[in-house]
Design goal:
Length: 484
């Protein structure tokens, strides 16, 4: 049986409001049942590709065609803030134009598929980050789409959740296109890669598993660089001869003209070497000075087991340069612990007076989406008089030019993550509280972030479900909520 094409981009061009184009004459096709990864730098336009596939955006040129009226469902990166006050049942109802009578049965099937076991009367905003990640996938599945679009589906998931998602995707019979920065996860099921080149504005389709494609791209870069290096040597040799013969006169001058024309042709034959994704520059997070003694004392924490909260006594003290890793399964209360700590709402936690806290929230709760990027950075500055310093810090995190005037809501999730790190640098905190700080972040940035955290001289509390990242961080103490 011949495999049918279910999705096709035919010379598609797209740009926002006649500004910088995101796509230029992009063409590719995806066959029915394929498992494809969509790669590209933060802000390159990956989420925009999903909007074009869903029909939310229309291309300026070209055609996006979904074969035979195939339906499209999307598991987005984060739940809309406006939906956080809904119950789970109310949230699922939004997936339908006409709510079916069997919606409770459909909800149970979708939640079972993603291994989510919580009462449907629970408020969406009360779920943990991992539970919300499962809910986003279940919301897409309940629509029974022919094409499933997944935007960073492993964010906030613990290892058990990632393993369950992998098993589901491998067995899933329909078409899947995934945006993710989790290389190991992608390599387990990907059979092809769509690479969105931020420089050429083209979409390039590669066949093979994730690591094979990445190696192929790297080899292509090396070949192009080697070819250009050889041409550069030949061009310089010709230029030297042109200069020599041009001064001789007579026939030598004619020879010089011929060599000059050949040199120009060689210049045109140079290929445009693929420029790899930009990485952020190395950075340091300055620590608050003149703080000593017990910065944080934790005597009790609340954990959630069997949907019930209970307080458990613990003994943890953080001094300057103490690093505490908090772990445990999704839904046990890790993020809630950090929120109550930062907001000084936990009776079991004592924070030193005058301690500046830098909080990286997994849902970017510290960012005002209606504010401009410029004002968002300025509000975080410990010393708000040095605008030049602020712009320099922002540039280190690839926040430059017109991005400074954009609303925070217009940034990609990856750019919001980089903005959050820039704010931490400007704040100069005595305590870093980091809740899944690698979510949405391009994997090329992660070693640089890890190095900065290791150099940080203040105290740190970290939650992360990314083992490779945690392995790069110096950790002094551990609190596993799952064992309490």
């Amino acid at each position: 049986m011949k495999e049918e094409v279910i999705l096709r981009f035919d010379e598609v061009s797209f740009e926002y409001l006649h500004k910088k184009p995101l796509l230029t004459e992009a063409s590719f096709s995806v066959r029915q049942g394929a498992k494809i990864t969509l790669m590209g730098q933060n802000g390159a336009g990956k989420s925009t590709i999903f909007k074009l596939i869903r029909g939310e955006l229309k291309p300026q040129k070209g055609i996006v065609s979904v074969t035979g009226g195939a339906t499209v469902g999307t598991a987005k990166q984060v739940i809309n803030r406006a939906d956080l006050d809904l119950t789970i049942e109310e949230y699922f109802a939004k997936a339908f134009e006409m709510v079916p009578k069997s919606i409770n049965s459909e909800i149970n099937k979708a939640m079972e598929a993603v291994n989510l076991t919580v009462p449907t009367t629970r408020r969406v905003g009360d779920l943990s980050g991992g539970q919300q990640a499962r809910l986003l996938l279940a919301y897409a599945l309940i629509q029974k789409p022919d094409i499933l679009l997944l935007d960073e589906p492993t964010n906030n998931l613990d290892q058990a959740g990632i393993d369950h998602l992998l098993t589901f995707l491998i067995m899933y019979q329909k078409t899947v296109i995934v945006i993710s920065h989790d290389a190991d996860f992608l390599n387990c099921f990907t059979e092809g890669v769509l690479y969105l080149n931020i420089f050429t504005k083209k979409l390039e389709l590669y066949v093979g598993d994730y690591y094979t494609v990445v190696a192929e791209i790297n080899s292509q870069v090396e070949r192009e660089q080697k070819k250009n290096a050889q041409l550069e040597k030949q061009i310089q040799d010709r230029k030297d001869k042109v200069n020599f013969f041009a001064n001789k006169g007579g026939k030598m001058r004619k020879l010089a003209k011929k060599l000059k024309d050949e040199t120009a042709e060689m210049e045109e034959n140079k290929v445009e070497v693929r420029r790899d994704d930009k990485t952020i520059k190395k950075f340091k997070i300055p620590a608050q000075e003149e703080i000593f003694g017990n910065l944080v004392t934790i005597k009790a924490v609340k954990i959630i087991k069997d949907h019930e909260a209970k307080e458990v006594p613990v003994e943890k003290v953080l001094n300057k340069q103490t690093r505490l890793l908090i772990s445990g399964p999704n839904g046990i209360g890790k993020s809630t612990l950090l929120r109550t700590l930062v907001n000084s709402k936990s009776e079991g936690v004592k924070i030193m007076d005058g301690l500046r806290m830098g909080y990286y929230s997994q849902d970017f709760a510290t960012l005002d989406y209606n504010d401009t990027v410029f004002n968002c950075l300025k509000a975080a500055m410990f010393d708000d008089r040095d605008e030049q310093k602020m712009r320099a810090v922002a540039a280190n995190f690839l926040i430059i030019g017109e991005l400074m005037d954009h609303k925070v809501s217009h940034l990609s999730e990856g750019q919001k993550g980089l903005l959050s790190f820039a704010r931490l640098v400007l704040l100069e905190p005595g305590l870093l509280v980091l809740d899944e700080p690698t979510n949405h972040i391009n994997f090329r940035h992660i070693p640089i972030i890890a190095e900065a955290l290791n150099d940080y001289k203040g105290a740190m509390i970290l939650i992360s479900h990314m083992p490779d990242f945690v392995a790069k961080i110096r950790i002094d103490d551990y609190l596993d909520l799952g064992t309490l």
